[in-house]
Description:
By secondary structure, this protein is an alpha/beta fold. It has eleven helices and 19 strands. The strands form three sheets. Strands 3, 5, 6, 10, 11, 18 and 19 form a seven-stranded mixed sheet that branches.
Amino acid sequence: xxxxxxxxxxxxxxxxxxxxxxxxxxxxxxxxxxxxxxxxxxxxxxxxxxxxxxxxxxxxxxxxxxxxxxxxxxxxxxxxxxxxxxxxxxxxxxxxxxxxxxxxxxxxxxxxxxxxxxxxxxxxxxxxxxxxxxxxxxxxxxxxxxxxxxxxxxxxxxxxxxxxxxxxxxxxxxxxxxxxxxxxxxxxxxxxxxxxxxxxxxxxxxxxxxxxxxxxxxxxxxxxxxxxxxxxxxxxxxxxxxxxxxxxxxxxxxxxxxxxxxxxxxxxxxxxxxxxxxxxxxxxxxxxxxxxxxxxxxxxxxxxxxxxxxxxxxxxxxxxxxxxxxxxxxxxxxxxxxxxxxxxxxxxxxxxxxxxxxxxxxxxxxxxxxxxxxx
Length: 375
């Protein structure tokens, strides 16, 4: 009997409700439908959005199969899949690209109208391929990467070179690539410009790397964790601000470093509501641009209208403005060639069965990314 017709039983990290403990349990994974593939996950990683997901963001549907960063190998393919085969290494993403809809052909956004970002916790046909004890499982975005096997619609994945470092591939499936893309595709940072980055986790380090690639001459990083300074410098940071070390505000310190005028671009990568206004205020009057990248459970943010009225621009960004095929493939190629110092992100590793240790590790000051070994 071909594998595509069989249900697979495997282990996955599950959350049964807001505030409930994460458990590793046996689940069932259905065969792929016509335009889907079933994937054996090889490596995954932990992102702050995963913490938000067990708190009810971006949707409040449980039981929830966790994880959205990772890389895997195709185990079986649906009947209508022609561009992929068993054995291909893929990165699942949550942004599709049809290359034909109004948004895709506009060149102005990565938000495809045919294959949109899905906050339903289900597949595009509004069903699930995952179940536990006969009960339907939801996933965070397009799939659940903290499962040994998962089914993904082919329009939400990217085939990559099998020589790619698996941990690094996982990092670019969301966090690092989101920051990098925000500087490259969304802000379009100009050569010689000045940049401020709030929050120096994987997303912030990606924004620093993207800004450096675009030729920014001054890149200021803001973080209360002093240990992030060295990490950020490896990606191109020129100045570091720890707000805890000064009686002055981060805004004042950034303006001092930028001749009193503010920076050309700022990137808010934390999702902390109070920092959004600060990130706008530190940019130049009339021309400053702020990218809102970080997200969290609290998404209603009061804005300082005066800061916006004085000509500054505030723009939101999903996945750093990256298109899955057109743009992420370029980052994947750079990743495979080790053009980024992604080893600086890899600080901890745990097996799937010890997933709760990953949440504790993320609280440690020396932790950037926790890699999850799937098998």
